[in-house]
Design brief:
Keywords: Gluconate utilization, Oxidoreductase. The protein is of the alpha/beta class. Helix 6 crosses helix 10. It is 50% helix and 9% strand.
Length: 277
């Protein structure tokens, strides 16, 4: 049954004979500190599962830390968002076969129900994969998130073009029509339809998009492995642009056009140029 504890020590003391501890805290130092503390508390043969969004290279460091104490380590990329509680979570895991097997009952409880094909036959493996050794789970999730960036950017650009022309009288309706039978239907598109139902012109939302880091890591890996990723890179850079009220790059471009060709520029009003002391 469910039992609340107020420390990692109390958590470990409450574990059954075979200890499997899931960690889902912010990536970086918070995860490292948690794994390090748990590795000092658990017993040989126990397993730590990092279900957060750690960088795959951090997993490899955490694994060495755990192995020194006889503790297993599994990294689990988890997708499904707030809807996962109802629909199940897609899981991409990395680790030894032995460690993954110890955690498999938990993964089976979290993963989506096994889907069936058109003939009614179950499609095993959908929604779960043991992707490889430690780091492979989070690497897979990193690539997943990079693809997600590009998909969202494409939907956003399509939405903006629809909204920019007078010809289209029902923008939310057009987007909703894409959700059935089209080659671009997806759960992300369903969520865009939901957002437009709540706010048809997205007037309540500022066009400002943060990035969680995994899009950057994906592009970095593309560079390191000489894999062209122009679409994912562009979607990441678009988020950077969204956070600029007045682009220094375009200021320089405007200044250059004025310098070499005498082209007109939009001057900053005096009150906008004034900065507080």
């Amino acid at each position: 049954g469910k039992r609340d504890v107020d420390s990692l020590t109390a958590l470990v003391e409450a574990l059954a004979a075979l200890g499997v501890v899931g960690v889902m805290v912010p990536s970086g130092e918070p995860t490292k500190a948690t794994v390090q503390e748990l590795a000092g508390l658990l017993s040989e043969g126990d397993v730590i599962v990092d279900g957060g969004n750690s960088k795959y290279t951090d997993d490899q460091i955490h694994d060495v830390m755990c192995r020194e104490k006889g503790i297993g380590y599994v990294d689990a990329g988890v997708s499904g968002g707030v809807w996962g509680l109802e629909n199940g979570y897609a899981l991409m895991v990395g680790g030894t076969a032995e460690d993954v097997a110890k955690v498999q009952p938990i993964f089976d409880a979290l993963r989506p129900p096994t889907p069936k094909d058109e003939s009614g036959q179950e499609m095993p493996g959908v929604g779960f994969v043991h992707a490889g050794p430690v780091g492979a789970g989070h690497f897979s999730k990193m690539v997943h998130n990079g693809i997600e960036y590009a998909m969202m950017q494409a939907y956003g650009e399509g939405y903006e073009l629809l909204a920019a022309v007078d010809l289209i009288e029902d923008v939310p309706g057009v987007v909703a029509s894409w959700t059935q039978g089209t080659v671009i239907r997806s759960w992300l598109l369903d969520l865009l339809v939901r957002a437009l139902q709540e706010d048809p012109e997205l007037e309540r939302i500022k066009g400002y998009a943060e990035d969680s880091g995994e899009g950057r890591w994906t592009v970095e890996q593309g560079i390191e492995n000489a894999v062209p990723m122009p679409t994912i890179a562009a979607s990441l850079f678009a988020r950077f642009v969204s956070r600029q009220d007045d682009s220094p790059t375009m200021k320089a471009v405007a200044a250059l056009r004025q310098q070499f060709g005498g082209h007109a520029v939009h001057a900053v009003r005096a009150q906008e140029a004034e900065k507080p002391a």
